[in-house]
Amino acid sequence: MQKRLFLIILMVSFTLASMAEGLTYLSTEDFKKKVCYYDLTSGQQPQWKYIGDKPCLIDFYTSWCKWCDELHPILEQVSKQYDGKIYVYTLNAEKEPELAALFGVRSYPTVVFCPMEDRPQAISGYRPIEFWQEVIRYIFGIE
Known about the structure:
This protein has five helices and five strands; from the N terminus they run H-E-H-E-H-E-H-E-E-H. The protein has helices at residues 2-19, 28-34, 66-81, 97-102, 129-140, and strands spanning 24-25, 56-61, 87-92, 110-114, 121-124. The chain is globular, with a radius of gyration of 16 Å. By secondary structure, it is an alpha/beta fold.
């Protein structure tokens, strides 16, 4: 029993530590507070209005996606490089299916870029860090 409890605590600690190195986990509730508020119960189509104070990118991943695992360290580097300039969020599309559906995410990884004044733009697939740096320059205008 103690050995099993120890293994569970170790696994949870490892997961939290790996997510804490720059990527911020985003739940549906957090999304509504930090990115864009919406209410599906109103019967109206949600309207996009970014509410953050800095642009953000949102990484949609799944637990079974090998490329998602490969992308996380790159996005951690991006988060550190652009610290204070952009937010870098990550969310598990299996746990937050409503958000994945709102953005039409069907392949993983998918990264959604949310500029301050424009509509979100999504890019699917694994890419090296230089690609993400170039996209950040192009979409957000940030060096």
